[in-house]
Amino acid sequence: MQKIIVAILFIAVVTLGACSQNQSNTKALEAKVDSLQKQVNNSYKPGLGEFMSGIQVHHAKLWFAGINSNWKLADFEIHEIMEALDDIQMYCTDRPESKKVVMLQPAIDSLNKTIAAQNVPAFKNAFVFLTQTCNSCHRAVNYNFNDVVIPTTPPFSNQLFTVPKQ
């Protein structure tokens, strides 16, 4: 009988010790979560203007790639634009403008088709459609002062937009 009482007391002590250790671990984990949440809240997130500036560069590079039949580069540039638009929807949710980027999808789909078909005249038309859609979006969000045009000069002097020689 005495052994049973000792065993019960031992189990009770171990159980109570484990419970207090769990409570201690829980508080430590809560503190760690709070610390990590503060780091996330204070981490750098690009603003809408930074994404748009990146899109502007890819827009220009896309034009010069397409008119020079550099379809691999054109495909790369349109996908960079798509990625930036996805990032806007992910990182700029507090901005009402982020809800409007979906209006660009038909123009992007059109460009993807012309790039796949490797058709320069169709590419030019689809690019005009994209550019006009960009401006329609700018007007819809009261940024009509930001008027995008078809580029006349390559954005970088250190990149060739023609098809590379094999």
From TrEMBL:
In terms of superkingdom, the source organism counts as Bacteria
- PROSITE patterns named in the record: PROKAR_LIPOPROTEIN
Where exactly are the transmembrane stretches of this chain? none
Question: Could you say which residues form the signal peptide?
Answer: 1-20
Provide the alphabetized UniProt keywords. Answer: Signal
Would the keyword Transport turn up in this protein's UniProt record? no
**Any one GO molecular function term:** electron transfer activity
InterPro entries linked = Cyt_c/b562
GO annotation (BP), single: electron transport chain
* Designated name of the protein: Cytochrome c
